[in-house]
């Protein structure tokens, strides 16, 4: 058999395997095990603690949908915060918007940014934009210390394990609400609707208690568990289903369009079922 295979155990019962051409970099940072590998199927790939974070072939599905949905929901976003996202993909999409005056990237691990710049330049290219400030610190604490600061907050976190657990808590969402301006919009990646239905249901419940508008939307990410991915949105004023597309900027994308924006909020019946189910019911 040609080559070496890498397998990510995505759940206790599911793995995804890719054939490696070579390992480009491997290290243990102060926070996690980091590797950049080159694969046959997806090109260069970033791994953190042996979990696929992004690949050059399919990253645009995720980065465009987590960024452009909130940025087009807000009619005039000028300041944006990204928590996590040290690969730079979300920042790359944000700086496409002409109204943006400042992007603050808060990433706890400086080595993620350094390796993305070296090995994933097509993803990290936006990090060098003059409007971008990079801060290597705890995103939870950063948000806790802000009030009425950002138009848009995007949480591009790892899975809810280890240090990232706090990014999926009601307390964190309340701090996000306070850190947003009076008409601010928030989006976070919230895992797989196939394998994390209870988590998504709980997050949606929390957001509905905190934000006047709370919605769930979906996209496809081939290398993520199940291939279908969920984002949770909280908004103080603007409904993502009522965007004035005549005013929205025209930006270059590979997946996101106004029609896909609208369709992403049309949830399939199985998702509606677990969102509406009693809290004790399992899926």
Automatic annotation (TrEMBL):
Keywords: Polyamine biosynthesis, Spermidine biosynthesis, Transferase. GO terms for molecular function: spermidine synthase activity. The keyword Transferase applies. S-methyl-5'-thioadenosine binds at residues 32, 107, 138-139, 163. GO terms for biological process: spermidine biosynthetic process. InterPro entries: PABS (IPR030374), PABS_CS (IPR030373), SAM-dependent_MTases_sf (IPR029063), Spermi_synthase (IPR001045), Spermidine_synt_N (IPR035246), Spermidine_synt_N_sf (IPR037163). Homodimer or homotetramer. Belongs to the spermidine/spermine synthase family. Catalyzes the irreversible transfer of a propylamine group from the amino donor S-adenosylmethioninamine (decarboxy-AdoMet) to putrescine (1,4-diaminobutane) to yield spermidine. This is Polyamine aminopropyltransferase. The gene is speE.
